[in-house]
Amino acid sequence: MNLTSIPALDDNYIWTLNNEDGQCLIVDPGEAAPVLAMLKKNRWQPVAVLLTHHHHDHVGGVKELLSHFPELTVYGPEETVNKGTTAVVKEDDHIKILDLEFRVMATPGHTLGHISYYSAPYLFCGDTLFSGGCGRLFEGTAKQMFSSFQKINQLPAETLVCCAHEYTLSNMKFAATLLPQDAGISAYYLKIKELRAKKQVTLPTTLSLERQINVFLRTQEADIQAVSFEDSLQRDEWEIFSALRQKKDHF
């Protein structure tokens, strides 16, 4: 199976998985043109679309893709029904595509109905977990997003985290400012600066790496708690998470 990221819009990635027979699935097509160009270039035949949530930069290309490939099955949460979804899926549903079985995970926070798709080692998590960061809380709460992070963190270390935006540089700048003494974060921030200076893609990332450099996955650590609240010992982990998200919102 081959994983490909297709740059789209300002900083989105549309993910594809294809097999040796040229069949492929498409994840969160925010626009159709770059997907159609990739399909034509590689002579791929799309068999399914996976949607994580209803925002336009993730669903904007669905209807045009369906006009070219009307037989496509479009999987998505309830909130995407009016965006082209033909098969509604929810927590713990299992769907088979390209000889892979994907488990649907409810990951609310960014939106209330946000879902992610996992088939080892691939995790398509939309705007939930980013490399070095987490999605904005547009509809859900910090407590919901914290729970979504905990659910993702139960997956194997080698999980490939295929998130939908190139936000790694800004996330690592935030982390390095928050924890300037953290050697792992500082080293990774430097690496990401070099990659982005060359306009190279920083994704996918791995869950094992994120456990080291993503402050939103380290809310149990004393140094993270100390920069979140003066009275951090009196706080629940989701409150630490919430404080970090608020700091990032104003960074």
Task: Give a brief rundown of this model.
The chain contains 9 helices and 14 strands. The chain has 251 residues and is of the alpha/beta class.
Quick tags:
alpha/beta, 14 strands, 9 helices, 251 residues, single chain, 6-stranded mixed β-sheet, Metallo-beta-lactamase, Chain A
Tell me what you see in this structure.
The chain is an alpha/beta fold. It has one domain (2-249): Metallo-beta-lactamase, Chain A, CATH 3.60.15.10. It is built from 9 helices and 14 strands. It has helices at residues 33-42, 56-59, 62-68, 142-152, 168-178, 183-197, 207-213, 222-226, 237-249; strands spanning 2-8, 12-18, 23-27, 45-50, 73-76, 87-88, 94-97, 100-106, 115-119, 122-126, 129-130, 133-134, 160-163, 205-206. A 6-stranded mixed beta sheet has the order 1-2-3-4-5-6, covered by helices on one side. A 6-stranded mixed beta sheet has the order 7-8-9-10-13-14. Strands 11-12 form a two-stranded antiparallel sheet. Strand 9 and strand 10 form a beta hairpin. Helix 4 packs across helix 9. The longest helix is centred in the C-terminal third of the chain and has 15 residues, at 183-197.
